[in-house]
From TrEMBL:
<dbReference type="GO" id="GO:0030976">
    <property type="term" value="F:thiamine pyrophosphate binding"/>
</dbReference>
<protein>
    <submittedName>
        <fullName>Iron ABC transporter substrate-binding protein</fullName>
    </submittedName>
</protein>
<dbReference type="GO" id="GO:0030288">
    <property type="term" value="C:outer membrane-bounded periplasmic space"/>
</dbReference>
<dbReference type="GO" id="GO:0030975">
    <property type="term" value="F:thiamine binding"/>
</dbReference>
<keyword id="KW-0732">Signal</keyword>
<dbReference type="Pfam" id="PF13343">
    <property type="entry name" value="SBP_bac_6"/>
</dbReference>
<feature type="signal peptide">
    <location>
        <begin position="1"/>
        <end position="33"/>
    </location>
</feature>
<dbReference type="GO" id="GO:0015888">
    <property type="term" value="P:thiamine transport"/>
</dbReference>
Length: 377
């Protein structure tokens, strides 16, 4: 689940002894409306004394600092299971530990969007709405609170400035002579989600509204890019970007920003978010329906969705789901914003539904060979 290996973006992690009448009321509540009820939640969580997480490597989205911050703030121990697990592993961990209240049973999960609806349908998730619920976009949450978007990346351009002087600022720029033999996808669009979503984003920039239309227009754009000699059919990982083989990489912004930092200016990588076709890929949080520590799980959610938690994710280059609302309210420190591409472009981000993405993926996988004819390796 590190910044360079977790690629499930594209879509969006009660049980336990009732501690008191107050705690029972909290467990049934959909949100916290008062300081008094938050105090009750904190007390109930501290009585449980532990939170069990899974699939949260410390170098992913700032989770190392977030976990330490939670422990320090509330004095609750965090039991970390399998940091490198994938979303499917997290769901299986819930299933395998339904009757287990021990340390191998996760309280909370952080998974790709597609896993939310399916886990809810299987009865694996506990509904809970955090106090900042209204600032989570409707398209990125289950209406009943079983799962909700936590952070997202957007498709962006990473430019090796030692090879390309002028970084592109929009999708239409990529077809110009400036970017001959320069533009590459991070993966094969027939199989890799981030590459599929880059094609989708190009379609949105071309005026599509989503789904099949975005797929068709995106394929037309990449056909043009390939026919004009601008597209490079090489997987734009860090090495070919640094070597200049793929000097303009299309990838999630959080991956590109991590790549930029890892290269330490040799070469200089400029990351730009396009002016149009800003497409977001969302992860989601949820609480296990079998959580051994349900109150600690709820408190963890309150922490993550507070201003403090949201800024913690942003420091790890993953845009928190409340980014637009917090930005509008001036709640994001300038020093954090200074490390990101132009903030105004993020305000244009669209969050395609799971149905939209599925429809687009099918068309792109089926028609890439016949329409674009470039075998990405």
């Amino acid at each position: 689940m590190s910044g360079f290996t977790r690629s499930e973006f594209g879509g969006f992690k009660l049980a336990g002894k009732i501690l008191s009448l107050t705690a029972a009321a909290l467990m049934a509540s959909s949100a916290f409306a008062s300081a008094e009820s938050m105090d009750d939640l904190i007390a109930a969580a501290k009585k449980e004394g532990q939170l069990t997480t899974i699939a949260l490597p410390h170098d992913w989205c700032g989770y190392g600092d977030l976990i330490e911050g939670f422990k320090k703030k509330y004095g609750i121990q965090v039991n970390e299971l399998n940091p490198m697990a994938g979303s499917g592993d997290e769901i299986e961990a819930i299933k395998a530990n339904k009757d287990n209240k021990g340390p191998q049973a996760p309280d909370v999960i952080d998974v790709g969007l597609s896993f939310g609806p399916s886990a809810k349908a299987e009865g694996l998730l506990m509904p809970y709405k955090v106090s900042t619920w209204d600032e989570i976009p409707d398209s990125a949450k289950d209406a009943d609170g079983h799962w909700y978007g936590d952070y997202y990346g957007v498709l962006a351009f990473g430019t090796n400035k030692s090879v390309i002087d002028k970084a592109p600022t929009d999708w239409s720029d990529l077809t110009s002579d400036t970017y001959k033999n320069a533009v590459a996808l991070a993966g094969d669009p027939r199989t890799a989600n981030n590459a599929v979503m880059a094609v989708y984003a190009a379609g949105i920039a071309a005026g599509a509204t989503g789904g099949k239309d975005a797929a068709e227009k995106g394929l037309e754009f990449f056909k043009k890019l390939n026919d004009e000699g601008n597209f490079v059919p090489v997987d734009a990982e860090a090495a070919p970007v640094a070597q200049g083989t793929t000097p303009v990489a299309l990838n999630w912004d959080y991956n590109l920003l991590s790549m930029r930092d890892s290269m330490k200016g040799n070469p200089e990588i400029e990351v730009t978010v396009p002016k149009s076709g800003v497409v977001a890929g969302v992860y989601i949080q949820a609480i296990s329906a079998y959580a051994p520590h349900p109150n600690a799980a709820k408190l963890w959610m309150e922490y993550l969705y507070s201003d403090e938690g949201q800024i913690g994710w942003l420091k790890g280059y993953c845009h928190p789901i409340r980014f637009n609302a917090m930005s509008k309210a001036g709640k994001i420190p300038q020093e954090v914003l200074d490390k990101l591409p132009a903030a105004e472009n993020y305000a244009n981000a669209v969050f395609p539904s799971l149905e939209d993405q599925t429809a687009a993926k099918t068309i792109i996988a089926e028609k890439w060979d016949s329409m674009v004819g470039a075998n990405v390796k």
